[in-house]
Write a structure and sequence with these properties.
By secondary structure, the protein is of the alpha/beta class. The chain folds into two domains: 3-19 and 216-408, UDP-n-acetylglucosamine1-carboxyvinyl-transferase, Chain; 22-213, UDP-n-acetylglucosamine1-carboxyvinyl-transferase, Chain (Alpha-beta prism). The protein contains twelve helices and 22 strands. It has a four-stranded mixed sheet with strand order 20-21-1-22. The radius of gyration is 21 Å and the shape is globular.
Amino acid sequence: MDILLSHTTAQLAGQIKLTASKSESNRALIVQALCGEDFVIDNLAEAEDTNVLKNLLNLIETGNTTLDVGLAGTAMRFLTAYLAITPGDWLLTGADRMKQRPIKVLVEALQKIGADIKYIEEEGYPPLKIKGKELVGGILTIDGSVSSQYISALLMIAPRLKQGLKICFEGELISQPYLKMTTEMMAHFGVNVNWFDEGVEVAKSQYKAKNFTVEADWSAASYWYGVVALSKEASITLYGLKKESLQGDSAVTGVYRKMGVETTFIDGGIKLTKNAEVNFKVLELDFTDCPDIAQTVAVTCAALSVNARFTGLKTLRIKETDRISALQNELSKLGFSVEVEKDDILIFPSLQKKSIEIKRVMTYDDHRMAMSFAPLALFKPIKIEDADVVKKSYPNFWKDLSLVGFSID
């Protein structure tokens, strides 16, 4: 479904119960499955990715051996590790795009600690044939620049390995907040994780059942920051977020402070207000620890005619789409000046908001493309292709926008 998104005044006020974090939800579901004892996960995300993982874990319990993750990348990575230690013969597959997303680093790491995993089609990519069994564990050396989901998948099964697991990192460790989220959640469930200078270690142990409440999603909040930044005036309350958060995307507060968006922490959430115009012309940002907010910030900078360079975007190449190319394509199509140097994005001051043409923004089967471009509707109506793609992480996004005056046709 394509939609035409618009707003008549660019003045916004409202209160939103923000969608829950799928990152926390998916980790909690895997820990619950590994625990062997049920516990309550409060405020579990309604995101499609989380529903896919929850449903597949239920299918595993009922004896189904063919598991299709569709486009859910987190489910593919977490289940690859989980099934490797779950007795049975498993076929783990996904949509065509999933079969183009590499998984070799994770598979090779699991094979080194005894896993029986084979590729069915192309080497290094899903689908996978997995023979689950008890694994020895031991010591692994991993490139620190790989996706944090590979490492999180290994860490979460570590307590179930005969010798536990010690991971030594080579080179710079990226997306550290996601790993900290994993290890802090493991600690919540009674597993001691020891960080040392070169890596992390988990001894053989047992998860303990303990209720867990999922925080609202800071990456979802980033779209609201984009909305406030491009508004004429705004006061938006988002419920469910915490000041002391496990999520690296909470860095959005500091990024958008530079663009005139003030964050006030209140009881049960945050209040966003627009209190100033952008008062600088050059912005350099490293998204190594928070790549999921890069698209939103890129659209904001382009719209505000900010001269910006974004680094730390390596992992964007292997997401739902090549997000770096997708951003360049769609921003350029709208008339903004964007260049790419290797994995860096450069945004240059260009046209004024009144010059934006009403064109159709392609989403490339990527939920974040749809939501990051939505704030441009505060300038002129904009067409969003395949708007239903937002269900992957924020099913109520369009409904929530309508609560603050956006028109959706």
